[in-house]
Write the structure tokens for this entry.
Amino acid sequence: MPEIFVVKAADFGEGDRRIVRVGEKEIGVFHHEGAYYAYANQCVHSGGPACEGVMIHKVLDVIGADRTYQGQVFSDEMHFVCPWHGYEYELKTGVCAGDRNLRLKKYDVVRRGDDIYVIA
Amino acid sequence: MNIQTPVNEVRELHFDRFSSSDSLAKAAEQARKRNYQDFLIVDVDSHHYESESYAEVFKYIESPVLRRSFVESAGRGGRSSMLGGSVGYQDISGRITRHWLRKHEKVEGTSHRDIVTTKRWMDAMGVDYACLFPTPMLFLGTHPQVEIEVALSRAYNRWLCEQILAEEPRIVSMLYLPFNDPEATYQMVKDFGDKKGVVGFMVTAPRYKPVHDNAYMKTYALLEEIGKPISFHAAYNWNDQSLTLLNRFISVHALGFMWFNMVHMTNWVVNGIPERFPKLKVMWIESGLTWAYSLMQRLDHSYLMRTSDCPSLKRKPSEYMREMYFSSQPMEMPDDPSILEATFKMINAETQLVWSSDYPHWDFDLPGVIYDLPFLNEQSKRNILGGNAAKLFGLDPTPVKNIPGTMPR
């Protein structure tokens, strides 16, 4: 599998993203909490640019010990959201938040010196 | 190690820029792969944000007194105004980015901004003709002042006809009817029925006037006479007593968009409107398809036991419903496609289903929701995507779109 140069690490800060086109494929490369993640930029729903939407923490319902509803909070888990219709994906796995049987194709990312590559 | 450098393309994301064409680049890719350039696609339900043009629209308010009130009210910004807002966070709290990025879209030239941006998304999706509807006005039927609904809808329709429909042949519309005033409704059809690009008339569904009221019969007769359809465009009213029980937008959207059309359809059929106006064409917009599948069975089941409740009917309710038109979006996609296939059979989709995108709203559909279905043949796909609507609206079936990346026409 060829390694595709994405960006210099120095130019790829925390929270940054790049979209890499390789032939007909598009891959979204993320830098989040010191790690790199890469997924196919194609939503499992209707083919939208899944990696190009907002990044937002997963929302949780807070249910008390007595099983009453106590409001909502953001969890620590980061999601990215397809901007076309709102399908959410876990940033660390590419799994679709609404149906764990669905996931984006994952690509490996490597750092060589100051260069970031995606293996596509 | 096999390192390729440089790559084809690496790009950054810019949340301070927006283009309808760029945001739908993947839709254009789908359009090219499926050869949409070879056949007609008609979108029977799409939208613009008419509120962005209120400064222009308000100039068309006929009453000088109301015109001043509208203009003054608009200047007050977010405070109380002539027009009510609707509670609802359709953009999923900012997750649907085009809703807040679209203000950055650049438009050059002399054409109206709404024409330019509409044609951009139409071409990206492979759409030849789009039936354009307003957005905030979908909720105008619940305005407490009937004269405001009449004044704004007349102004909007005149503005739309003169500034948009007269200028762009690929954009058509079914004009808003101020249904809370039956006489003004009739007059709207009289005044605008022959305007360029007017392919029918539309009633926004959230409202509390029964469609079988005698006051509407002369409007139905006029529509039947001029051969243009009446449509019912679904929306919700979170203040409806039943819907106030719901605490999330997903709930009020799922039920609200079906609820009002189910009420109107039931009244329409049970009171024998199809028997009284057998040539009047009727379309139901933006409730998806499962509601019709369900209601047909419910009404048929009761009808056989209670024919005395609806003596005007000469056939089962479902037989009348099967002769009406249904827009497809938001088309439910069950895991088991045989369920969808049964729904298509139930509504006679081959001739009665008309594709719609609802773009740019949050749950829009691409033509692929129809084109990629495994149980349709090519001709059925083309009927649903454009042929059925072209016949209904009297449109030329020759494709006129320019999908980015294909040879210009």
In short: The interface with chain A takes residues 1-13, 23, 25-27, 29-30, 92, 94-98, 362-366, 368-369 of chain B (CB under 8 Å).
